[in-house]
Amino acid sequence: MLDRIALKLLKPAVDAIALRLSALKVSADQVTLAGFGIGMVAAGLIASGHAMLAILPLVLNRAMDGIDGALARLSGSSERGAFLDISLDFVFYAAIPLAFAVEDPGRNALAGATLLAAFVVTGTSFLGFAVMAEKRGLRSTAYPSKAFYYLGGLTEGTETILCFLLMCLWPEQFAIFAYIYAAMCGLTAVTRLVAGWKVFG
């Protein structure tokens, strides 16, 4: 829901950084892998009980996710790069709830499992729509720069990172945030299923 606004606001800074990195011969795949590594540092910090310290690597991970896309557009995007990017994004998204569950299983395990299940449902509807859209040659007008059809919804990347940041700021309230966001993901999945039913009917 907020991705288009966030992308528009951050685009000048992201493009400027991408231009500088391109001049230094840094590739989009290198940024993707580095960003993923930083994201795993965030997960490790959360799992070890240092959620507040995970805020910076969380933000850096998402910033680098935007920069790698801008770099790819400068050098010519590749299917391999797009595949790597989305695959590692989903690993990162799964790692954060899991990290909270590891840190305090008694309090967070069920909520973490619920949120992970919600991520599976939204991710499946997202990628399933993208596959069918590609077969039909459809392109997203809302996100034309994406390598594949990006079907938005109530819970997109911006909302997810905001939720993760709230969890890091108030880790003792993880379960509440997780259940609320899982419900929001459920609504997103329903809207995507309806959209797929209509578009591919």
Notes on the structure:
The protein has 201 residues and is mainly alpha-helical. It has a single domain, classed as Up-down Bundle (Four Helix Bundle (Hemerythrin (Met), subunit A)), CATH 1.20.120. The chain contains 7 helices and no strands. It has helices spanning 3-23, 28-47, 55-75, 79-103, 105-136, 157-169, 174-199. The longest helix has 32 residues, at 105-136. The protein is globular. The two termini are 25 Å apart.
- Mean pLDDT, all residues: 90
Count every beta strand, where a strand is a DSSP E run of 2 or more residues.
0
Approximately how much helix is present in the residues? over 70%
Provide the CATH top-level class: Mainly Alpha
Main sheet record: none
CATH superfamily: CDP-alcohol phosphotransferase transmembrane (TM) domain
User: What is the architecture at the second tier of CATH?
Assistant: Up-down Bundle
Shape: globular
CATH level 3 topology: Four Helix Bundle (Hemerythrin (Met), subunit A)
Number of helices: 7
User: What structural class should be given to the helix and strand makeup?
Assistant: mainly alpha
The tally of domains stands at 1
Beta strand %: under 5%
Element string (H = helix, E = strand): HHHHHHH
N-end to C-end Cα span:
25 Å
Topology:
Blueprint: H1 3-23, H2 28-47, H3 55-75, H4 79-103, H5 105-136, H6 157-169, H7 174-199
Helix pairs in contact: 1-3, 2-3, 2-4, 3-4, 3-6, 4-5, 5-7, 6-7
